[in-house]
């Protein structure tokens, strides 16, 4: 208990120094946790992808569409339980700053493939019946204060013009990670308008969504679908939803790697700063350690006091950083919702934050402990000046 | 003065040198002398004469290059480091010029420090510490931190810490060097009491003639050699 007493009192002997070190560790740990969460979110779409959904697109590029006639041929492939189709609409609400995903889809078949989009039955029915109707996710509705019945206007980019929709339903995600910032409207509405305005672009689907009975069938069904359209004018590339998401992620993988490196560097930097602080502290206390040695105290006590102090300060910084992570994540989730619809810390991230803080303390204690343990008593008692 | 008692400290042919790069600087040259039990010895000499080095060797906190130091019959020059540390804790009391109290511990806790390495219970430790603090007239200051004590009071706490384990010898390196005249007198009086009332053996390094005047024996060191 003497050692514990010494650790606690020494840790706050220089209050300003200790507080600044604790705050420094807290900020580093907070940054580490938030960056880790950001990287995790980037891959979340892929991780949450359904194992029984496939995406079929033009093999050349997603920019090119596929004939709508493909749907019936895809439906005939053994193992296919459901087929839907859609187009990325890319419309703008108010201005470019208010970005959210919007798609033209076949409502019934699409919602059959996305059971995680939970819509009240009456709203679903009204959406099906109204060709100019749309549904949005709960978070999107909350963001703009939309209510069922509201008129929503999107400015077309890929499909020029002002497009008006009547909000017929607001869906909730079945899981916390389900995307709730999407607008879906009738593919038929888009297609009929294109027939009148730009006929050559009509009857084209940007992608097909395919539901399979079991995940094990994904590879075979993908190959079978692509085989049907091989050597056609619009060859297809069919892959799992996860692979489809990963193909987008891989374009930005370098950035994610860079962010991960930065998150580790933040910890290394604070480790160096903490080591410097502990080294200065140990240097100031050499006479005390030498005195303890003359009284008979050995490595266990002296090393324990130094290590304990370092771990206590860094541990407190880690706890503070971990606690601050929650309001910080919440702030990001609210204020930067357009970029991060969900920004929640995982238990693993919190554990890693605390572990990183303790590692900082342990590493910072290495040199001072070695110095305190190996200093010759006579040398340590000698004063300078 | 202690007479007709066997020597508690027996030093024979003691030598010590320091290395500075390629240079070897002799500090003590073939020192031999004895100290009787209950004797108060003052070591005097100019700066760099080797007084503190000799004191450190007797206290077991430095190693000689040559020679023998027997304290209470134990040849400490042959003890390995771990054993020497253990021997030191129970046989030597240290009094430093700058007190060397741990600033985050109270007077009570500083005095209690050496007892933490013994098997005494908490209650027994408390009894010992309170008794020793009464002896140095600081019973009413036991919960004060060093920063709340004067220089003289801090040195009395240091003396209390030095005697708490009833060591065979007390070594004091300039114990009055950082004190004003009045405080220095108090400390010397206390050390005198330790010798006459408790029969302690004290070896003191000092520049202060008044301090040396309290000693039974004064020895002079000059350039590492005992001249008197």
Query: What CATH architecture of chain B would you give?
Result: 3-Layer(aba) Sandwich
Global structural class of chain A: alpha+beta
Task: Give the largest interface.
Answer: A-B, 21 and 26 residues
Low-confidence runs of chain B: none
Your description of this structure?
The complex is a heterodimer of chains A (385) and B (228). Chain A has helices at residues 2-11, 15-42, 44-47, 70-75, 107-113, 121-129, 138-144, 187-197, 218-228, 241-251, 253-284, 286-294, 299-335, 347-374, 377-381; strands spanning 53-58, 66-67, 80-88, 101-105, 117-118, 133-137, 151-156, 161-173, 182-186, 204-205, 207-212, 236-240. Chain A is an alpha+beta fold and 385 residues long. Chain A folds into two domains: 2-44 and 253-381, no CATH class; 60-234, no CATH class. In chain A, a hairpin with a 4-residue loop joins strand 7 and strand 8. The longest helix of chain A has 37 residues, at 299-335. Chain A is elongated. The model of chain A has no long low-confidence stretch (mean pLDDT 90). Chain B has a six-stranded mixed sheet with strand order 6-7-8-3-9-10, with helices on both faces. A four-stranded antiparallel sheet of chain B has the order 2-1-4-5, covered by helices on one side. In chain B, a hairpin with a 2-residue loop joins strand 1 and strand 2 (23-36). The longest helix of chain B is centred in the last third of the chain and has 18 residues, at 181-198. The A-B interface holds A 2, 5-6, 9-10, 13, 287-288, 291-298, 376-378, 381, 383 and B 53, 56, 59, 61-62, 82, 85-86, 88-90, 92, 94, 96, 98, 100, 102-105, 109, 113-114, 116-117, 161.
TL;DR of this structure?
The complex is a heterodimer of chains A (about 375) and B (about 230). Chain A is of the alpha+beta class and about 375 residues long. In chain A, about 55% of the residues lie in helices and about 15% in strands.
